[in-house]
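Q: My labmate handed me this sequence with no annotations at all. I'd like to see what the chain might look like in three dimensions before we decide whether it's worth expressing. Could you predict it?
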Amino acid sequence: MSSAMTRSPLFSAAIFFGLFFGGGFVGIQLSRTLAPESGLAEFVSFLALPAAFVIGNAFWAGAAIPAAVRRIIRLVRESGRVLPGRVSATEAMIPPGSFAFVPAALLTSTLAGGVVATISRPFGFLGVIFLYTALGLAYGVICWRLARSGYLPFPRE
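A: Here is what I predict for the chain of 157 residues:
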């Protein structure tokens, strides 16, 4: 049995909610540092990473559809033959496309960085954009790696 199959639902839920709400928390803390006393910066920063999480989940589910269709077609074509195991149990359980978290997080965090950069005077426009983009990249890679390794549950319905 693969490790992805034996993960507790409670553990997966903790990771799911930790990424979702943790992203908002980190965004607020960053905006309070870069643009103190700006409600707009806090609001935009609070939504950036959770929005990336939601968009990444939707794109991950959408990206899994073509892979599932290809797999079904291949299984129908090869239905009479015995094939050596090509895919491990873990890979079979985790649909492809989880990389979608990376561009989603880059997009939302860079846009949020643009808003905060226009408000934040002491840190400079490009510095704030770079910081938010780096944060988005890190968040996207963390979500992607957790999803790919089975720690983040695949979106259902």
